[in-house]
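Practice problem: predict the structure.
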Amino acid sequence: MVGWAIALHGGAGDIPIDLPDERRIPRETALRHCLDLGVSALKSGKHPLDVTELVVRELENHPDFNAGKGSVLTAQGTVEMEASIMDGKTKSCGAVSGLTTVINPVSLARLVMEKTPHIYLAFDAAEAFARAHGAETVDSSHFITPENIARLKQAKEFNRVQLDYTAPTPEIRGDSQIGTVGCVAVDSAGNLASATSTGGYVNKMVGRIGDTPVIGAGTYANHLCAVSATGKGEYIIRATVAREVAALMEYKGLSLTEAAAYAVEQSGPRGTCGVVAVSANGEVAMPFNTTGMFRACATEDGYTEIAIWPKN
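Answer:
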C-alpha cells in the first residue's frame, strides 16, 4: 500500500534531557506547526518538492532553529547560510552556500535547480543570482540575533567550534543552537523529495561548507527514498550518509528502517548524526546516534510522532 508520508527535523545533537521548558516548548510547538503545514499540503495534492520547500522555509523563519533567521555566527560574527533541495524522480537538485542576505536559502536552492544548468552556487555569485531572480533579501543584520552574538562570545571564550546543543558551561546548558533543519516527503504516487537548510556551526571558519548543501551527504532523493541529515557535517560528508541510505536499499535490499539505522551507525562515533527519511511506499525512519534530535513525522495511515529524545 503506497501512502503519503512526511518527516522533518530541527537538528540533532547533545540535547540535555533537562532542557528547560522555555527552550523545549517553542521548538516542539514549531515542529507541530510545520508538520501540520506539510500534512495539509500533501493532502491537498501538492508535489513533495513543494511540500519540503514549504516546510523548510517555515523552519528557516523560526528563530529557535539554526537556519535562516536563527542562523549561528561564524568566527567573524557573520552569517553564512546554506541549503539544498532534490527531487527523487528526476534527480534534479539545487544547492547554495555562503548566503548573507537571503531570507529563505532553500528557495534559492530551488531557483538554482530550476533556472540554471548548474546544481550549486555559492557566496557572492549566489547572492547576485538571488538579486537577479527576485529572491527576498534583507540586510544581513536581520539574521544576527542577540542570542547568537552571546553564543559566539561563549564559544570564543572556550576557544571551540560550538555544535548543536554541546554547551561548554553548565550555566548555559542547552543554549547553543541545534545544527540544521530538513524535511522529506512522499506522495501517494510515490514521488519523493528532500530539502535541508542550516547556518552551520557557531564560531566556524569563514568559508566553511558543511554537509547540508552537499548532495548525497546532507540531502538526497531518488526513486526509492528521500533523506535529510543533521549533525557533524564533516562526518556526514565523509560517510555520504544520505546517499548511503539509498544505496543500502538499492544494492543490499535493506528496508528503509534498516538502511537508515545502519547509515547513522556507520557515520562515526556516537554524537555524530541523525537522519529523517521516507521511502517510496510511505515508510518513515528517524534514527540518530546523538543524545536527541528534534523531529516529527506523519503517515497517511494516521501515525504521528513529535519527539526530541529516544522513545525508550
